[in-house]
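Justification of computing resources. Each target in the renewal requires a structure prediction run like the one illustrated here; the chain below, 373 residues long, is used simply to show the kind of job we budget for.
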Amino acid sequence: MSDNDEEMPVPFLDLACAFRANEKAWLSRIREIGASGCFILGQEVAAFEREFARYMGIKHAVAVASGTDALVLGLRALGIGPGDEVITTPYSFFASSEAISMVGAIPVFADIDRNSFTIDPHRITEKIGARTRAILPVHIFGHACDMAAILKIARAHGLVVIEDCAQAFGAKSNGEYVGALGDCGCFSFYPTKVLGCYGDGGMLTSNDDGIQEHVRRLRNHGMVASYMHAEFGCNSRLDEIQAAALRLKLQCINDDINARRKIAAQYARLLSGLELAIPQSPDAESHVYGVYTIRLKNRDAVRRSLAERRISTAVYYPLGLHLQEVYRGLGYATGSMPVCERMTAENLSLPIYPGMPQRHIERVCNALNGAVQ
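Resulting structure tokens:
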């Protein structure tokens, strides 16, 4: 590594890297789409839905405008509404619980597992009450939840399961892709995701004919025939240009996931022996490392040290959902989710993306070796 390499910044992500790999093919598809005159819910979207479902080994995939919309429409299609309780994790992006609130239901938070950052099935059981209708597990940072345990609980109590797969496309639980295990799976194609587009986009997956039919209706204003509306829906339609980008990326997604796993393996090797905890995975397929998150006691000091060396990091997440101002009325107090609250104080996410230069991986690790005490 040269002195000049040491002076170069290490970005947290380089989204332009993936764009350059697909630029020629994508621009060609844009020209074809423009010439066709069809920009919304056309052949590209339909083809992407088929290819996505085939990849996942699931019956239905319904493209929508965002991952948040997928969650909201999935909840609605499963009949979740005002007064219902949905058990979920306090350790996720706000959309996971926001979607529950948006349909009028009440999020009930259950603490997480300290090694996986995912919802702890033992804590789920403690939260089940008379109004509980659903469980919404989040496959966080690319790590699959313990779906076997969650589904067992759901079946025992007659609950539906909505998987939030926004951060974990391609991860597996017990040999099956996340999003193909619960009643429905909800994906985000925000540009930073494992499978990301060049704007917003989302997908809902299900093996249930009724759920997919309902979501297709809801995403287009509740329309059942041209200008005929059976219910109130919304405008949540994926456009042709984003679908074209996603189809191109889906073709090489396994290569991208393998690249993430190789970087994670290098991090694990180069960071061994330091006073920090690296991501844990029960098997090779359960984690796709959408985000590479470590835990360490002196997180803020270490982050400042890395920033001084022009190495970008992120904190996902600084405050549990149960302590957010908007949920103050639910009555959660500091200390009510002890594992989550400890993780919010200790987590630090390191740069990881397909195409990340070897010299950047080494710089991150060398800087951590000097900063962790």
